[in-house]
Amino acid sequence: MNWSEFFAMGGYALYVWGSYAAAAIVLLLNVVAARRREQSVRRELQNLQTLNPSDSE
Amino acid sequence: MFDFLHKYASPRNFYDFAGILIPWLAGVTVVLLAIGLYQGLFLAPPDYQQGQSVRIMFIHVPAAWMSMFVYMVLAGAGAVGLIWHLKLAEMTAAAAAPIGASFTFLALVTGSLWGKPMWGTWWAWDARLTSELILLFLYLGFMALQAAIDDPKRAARAGALLALIGVVNIPVIHFSVQWWNTLHQPASVSSIAKIGAPAIHPSLLWPLLIMAIAFTVFFAVVLLMRLRAEILHRERYTHWVAERIKS
């Protein structure tokens, strides 16, 4: 099997690659969203500390 | 056992423990995905009826399994939170919801992409498809409820109740292909007892199982990442969080 045959997926390229692309996007967004959430929490905590430095004593 | 639970179920210890665990589990996920993709895309033979489109299975089936597994984790954590008021369990339920919703979405999208060439339609109001769509709405409902209630204790209680009522939907999804005459095919890997003789060839079963394990470990990674963020947020007024933030 050569590469162009591989990418053609027996005529099902759109459906097969569409599925794998969807999976890649969903997995990636999961990681991005989790990271973003952590960053926003950290920002909030830093603000909390600059507002109330005595809390961290 | 109780000492162990007490130690790791304390948000502070869990936060540090999860921090050590995440990079290892992420490495395992990458390796499993590489093996699963190689087997699924290169080694597995095309199906005699479905041709190359059968490769959608290696995404679709693990995603669909995860959609139900994550829901059980969510509902189970919700129940533990309701009964023992364990903060970590409440946070687990909240952290699992968006991940489960994303797997459910993926199962629906890949199902649609598989249904079009095989059944001739993107969507049918068939029992399996409809109950899976209801699962997506359960996740979204849970998340909306969490977002709408400011007090985390009350949000956790309301969410857990919704999640527990929604558990009814899980057997409906699982058995829908037996109870009703659906367009969707019945299970090929139906139970642990039949794993020795499933209605699927090993060349297809192996990549399927490896992808399923890869998705499961991936779920653990993202769940732990989200849990760490939730722990910081809910413990934001404590001394130890202030210490971790400074460094």
Q: How would you describe the overall organization of this protein?
A:
The complex is a heterodimer of chains A (57) and B (247). Chain A is mostly helical and 57 residues long. Chain A has one domain. Helices cover 79% and strands 0% of the residues of chain A. Chain A is built from 2 helices and no strands. The longest helix of chain A is centred in the middle third of the chain and has 39 residues, at 13-51. The termini of chain A are far apart. In chain A, 19% of the residues are buried. Chain B has 247 residues and is an all-alpha fold. Chain B has a single domain (21-189, 198-246), classed as Up-down Bundle (Four Helix Bundle (Hemerythrin (Met), subunit A)). In chain B, helix 3 packs parallel to helix 8 (202-234). The radius of gyration of chain B is 20 Å and the shape is globular. The two termini of chain B are 32 Å apart. The mean pLDDT of chain B is 91. The chains are: A mainly alpha (57), B mainly alpha (247). The interface between A and B is large, with 32 and 39 residues.
What's the SSE blueprint?
The complex is a heterodimer of chains A (57) and B (247).
Chain A: H1 3-8, H2 13-51
Chain B: H1 2-8, H2 11-43, H3 57-84, H4 87-119, H5 127-148, H6 152-166, H7 169-179, H8 202-234, H9 239-246
